[in-house]
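input
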Amino acid sequence: MMELTHTRFLVDNYKECFLFYRDILGFDVTWGDENSSYVDFKFRGATLGIFDRKQMVEAIGEEYSTNIEKADKTALIFK
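output
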C-alpha cells in the first residue's frame, strides 16, 4: 500500500525559503539547514520538504532550465 509521506517544493531560492518557513512561519526543522539545499519541516503533523530545484533536476537526470514556466515546482513523495 502506498502512503503519501510529504510534499516537496522545488525552489530556486532555497536559503530564502528555508528562512521564511523556519523564522516567519515557525516550522520545526527535522532535517537539513539553511546551507544543505534540502530541508524537512514538521508542522502540526505534516511534513514539508524544500529542495533546491537545480539539484532535484540533476538528481533525476534532466537538464536544468531557468525557464520557470516549464519547470516542476512541487513533488509528492510516496513510500
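quick obs: Strands lie at 4-11, 28-31, 38-43, 46-52, 74-78.
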